[in-house]
Design goal:
This protein is an all-alpha fold. The chain is built from 14 helices and no strands.
Length: 278
């Protein structure tokens, strides 16, 4: 169903948009529609989730030093209370953030593969969360660094991360906005978005790969899926490095403007019937 050049294009789209607060699912959905793919087909839905694993592998490689540091501190803190510092708390924050996301995702699965696959849902998600991002970027005090993150922060951000089940909201957009509203600075909020995304999207991708293995094999094909996953990983690594440099010197206004412009373009395509909503 998806040939090699389509997989490369979709992998590039996924790699660029996964970590930027502009909605990777929204971009993939629009791109798939422009390619004439049936976005409500189970194999296409599974493909969209599975190729995210490539981006997550890129983030693991990029943040490997941080991951090892958090894991080492977490295990050390379990054995010795005197070693329970900020890295130990970060370990718990990531674990605590993953739990609500996983639970909500499992409960909302019928919506993810059903009504939320509409491009109108993408439009609503893009516009509504653009407003939320604008508020977070302007109202957030940004007086907290990464070493101040607590388990409570993890739970709140993990819960907000589940809003990305609505295409157009953006997983990174949801967690970054939440982090800003909790007082984190832009770099800390962005890095926390990466750390929460690693277990979340790997679990989601592997779950879809196992659950929809037959659909992928009979529909999209594993060759195309693995190609898209590999391409997304390479592109995502570059995207991560760029985003962290960008947020260290800029606010999120450019992303907000882009999101609203994209929503208007999608509306125009839908109204003129260039593409259909589902």
């Amino acid at each position: 169903m998806i040939n090699w050049w389509q997989s490369i294009v979709l992998g590039i789209v996924e790699g660029i948009t996964e970590f930027l607060p502009i909605s990777s699912t929204g971009h993939l959905t629009v791109t798939e529609k422009l390619m004439g793919l049936p976005i409500d087909d189970p194999s296409v839905t599974a493909y969209t989730a599975v190729i995210q694993v490539g981006a997550m592998i890129a983030s693991i490689i990029y943040f490997w030093g941080d991951i090892v540091r958090f894991a080492t501190a977490w295990f050390a803190g379990l054995r010795n209370a005197d070693k329970r510092g900020s890295d130990y708390r970060m370990g718990w924050a990531i674990i605590a953030g993953f739990i609500p996301t996983a639970v909500i995702a499992l409960l909302a699965e019928p919506l993810i593969t059903g009504v939320l696959r509409s491009l109108w849902a993408v439009v609503v998600g893009l516009i509504v969360w653009s407003i939320a991002m604008f508020i977070g970027d302007r109202v957030g005090k940004q007086n907290r660094g990464e070493d101040s993150i607590t388990v409570r922060d993890g739970v709140i951000l993990g819960t907000l991360q589940s809003l990305a089940l609505v295409p157009g909201v953006s997983r990174s957009g949801a967690t970054i906005t939440g982090g800003l509203l909790l007082g984190l600075d832009r770099v800390a909020a962005t890095r926390m978005s990466f750390f929460l995304g690693i277990p979340t999207l790997i679990a989601s991708g592997l779950y879809q790969a196992v659950k929809e293995a037959k659909h992928i094999a009979d529909g999209v094909g594993w060759g195309s899926t693995l190609l898209g996953t590999a391409v997304s990983g390479v592109v995502a690594y570059v995207s991560i490095a760029w985003l962290l440099r960008y947020v260290s010197k800029n606010d999120f206004t450019g992303f907000i403007i882009y999101r609203i412009a994209l929503a208007l373009v999608i509306v125009a395509l839908l109204v003129t019937q260039v593409i259909s909503a589902v």
